[in-house]
Amino acid sequence: MSQRPIYLDNHATTPMDKRVLEAMLPYFTEHFGNPSSINHLYGWEAEAAVKKARETIANAINCSPEEIIFTSGATEANNLAIKGIAEAYFNQGQHIITVQTEHRAVLDPCQYLETLGFEITYLPVKKDGLIDLEILEKNIRPETILVSVMVANNEIGVLQPLKEIGRICKKYDILFHSDGAQAIGKIPLNVQAMNIHLLSLTAHKVYGPKGIGALYIRRRDPRVKIAPQLHGGGQEKGIRSGTLYTPQIVGFGKAIELALQEIDAESQRQKELRNRLQKQLLSLEGVHLNGHPTQRLSGNLNVSIEGVDGAALLLALQGIVALSSGSACTSTTTKPSHVLKALGHSDKLAYGSLRFGLGRFTTTNEIDTIGQKIVDTIQSLRQATVQN
Ligand SMILES: *Cc1c(COP(=O)(O)O)cnc(C)c1O
Fold first, then answer.
1. How many angstroms from the chain centroid is the CA of residue 167?
2. What CATH code is carried by the domain that includes residue 378?
3. Given this model, what pLDDT does residue 243 score?
4. Residue whose CA is closest, atom 7 of ligand 1?
5. 63 in active site
6. Do 283 and 144 share a domain, yes or no?
7. Ligand 1 centre from 74 Cα, in Å?
8. What integer pLDDT is reported at residue 332 of this predicted model?
9. Relative to the CA of 13, which ligand 1 atom is closest?
10. End-to-end CA distance of the chain
C-alpha cells in the first residue's frame, strides 16, 4: 500500500483521540439510556454522563453548566445564536454587526436575516486580518442588537481582540456572540473576562467526535433571551429540542478535558513546529505570510505563493500532504477564499495560497519531510512556468 499523505488539515477537522473513543464506547451499548428518562437507571446513567460533560465544558470557558446548550456542532450553534437573538430582540432593533472574514456558518445566517429585513454590517479587516476597533465602534447604532466576531479564524488563524470587543459591547449594552470553533481547547477562553454573551463551540476540531457542539448562552448579568430554532420535546430548557446524543456529548467532554490538560505545552510545541515550517517556506522569494505574525493560533500557517498556479501546486502536493488551498472550504464550489480576498488579495494570489493546520499528532519528522518537498515543488513549478 502506498503511504497516505501527511495530515495537515486540522482546521477542517481533527482525528479523534483514542482516549475519547474509549470514553464514548460504553454509551452506545450498555449505557444507552435517554438522559430525559427520569424513572429508571438507564436514564440516570446517561443523565449523569451528560451532567459531567456539561460541567467540564462549562469550566473550560468559566460559565455555569446551565448556560451550556448542546447542539450538533458550531454551525447549528451559530445559527441558533444569530437567528435566535434576531427573533427574540426584533422589537429592540434590527441591526447586526459582523466581519467579512467570519465562517460561512455566521455569514450565511446573517445574509438570510437580510432577506427578512435586518440590516447587517460586515466590517472590513486590516491587512493583518484583525478588525479595527474604532471602525467597530463607529458602526454601532441605537438599533444594533448583536455583534458577532469569531475568536480564531479558520483560515489564517488570527485571534481577534475579544476582550476589547467585549468592552465595547458592554459600553453600548449590546449582545456579543463569538464563534469559538477553532479556539476551544487551544487558547484559554473566559466568557466573564471577555464579556461574551454567546459562544459557539464544536468537538471535532479538538480531537472529539463530529456532530456535537454547544452554545453558551449567558443567564445572568444580563439574562440573554433566545428564540428556539428547533421545537419539540423541550430538551435543553426548551432552547434545543431533540434527544441528547449521549456518546457524542461524553466524547466532547473528554476531548475538552484532555485538551485543557496539555493546552500550554501543546501550544508551545505546535508553535515551534509551525515556525520551523514557516521559516523554510518564507525563505523562498515571493512567498508571503497571511494574517498577523504573532496574534494567531499556534498550529496555523497560511501562505500565498507568487508565480505558481494554485491548482497545479495542490495537485503536485496531493500525495505528499493533505492540506487546503486558498479557495473556499465550502467544498462544492471553488471560489477564491473570501478571507484572503478581505485581506486585499487578488483572485490569483488567493488561489495560490496554502493553509497548514498542525495538530496534536503532527511530528517534527513530518514537518521536516514536507518542508523540503514543498520548497522543491514550488521551485520546479516556477521553473516549468518560465520554460513555457
Ligand atoms: C469548523 C467551523 C465551524 C463549523 O463547525 P461544525 O461543528 O462543523 O458545524 C464554524 N466556525 C468555524 C470558525 C469553524 O472552524
1. 22
2. 3.90.1150.10
3. 97
4. 73
5. no
6. no
7. 5
8. 59
9. 1
10. 35
For 288-363, where are the alpha helices, taking DSSP H only? Answer: 310-317, 338-342, 347-351
| Domain end call among 212, 242, 257 | 257
Distance CA 153, CA 99 (A): 11
Which candidate, 260, 193, 185, 216, places its Cα nearest to that of 68? 216
pTM (two decimals): 0.96
Q: Same structural domain for residues 91 and 38?
A: yes
Task: Give the pLDDT score at 328.
Answer: 59
> Among all chains, which residue has been given the C-alpha cell 477562553?
189
Same domain, 229 and 327: no
Task: Please check whether residue 270 lies inside any domain of the structure.
Answer: yes
Q: Are residues 211 and 318 in the same domain?
A: no
Within 6 Å (CB) of ligand 1, which residues are found? 73-75, 103, 105, 150, 154, 179, 181-182, 202, 204-205, 213
Q: What is the model's pLDDT at position 273?
A: 98
Dihedral sign of CA atoms 87, 92, 95, 98 in order: negative
DSSP-derived 3-state class of residue 365: helix
Cα 202 to averaged position of ligand 1 atoms, centre (Å): 7
Strand pairing partners for 215?
Answer: 69, 200
* pLDDT in the model for residue 349: 87
Which atom of ligand 1 lies at the shortest distance from residue 76's CA? 9
- Distance between CA 52 and CA 356 in Å, rounded? 34
Which residues, given as ranges, of the chain have pLDDT below 70?
A: 1-2, 327-333, 386-388
Residue 306: give the domain boundaries. 6-14+263-387
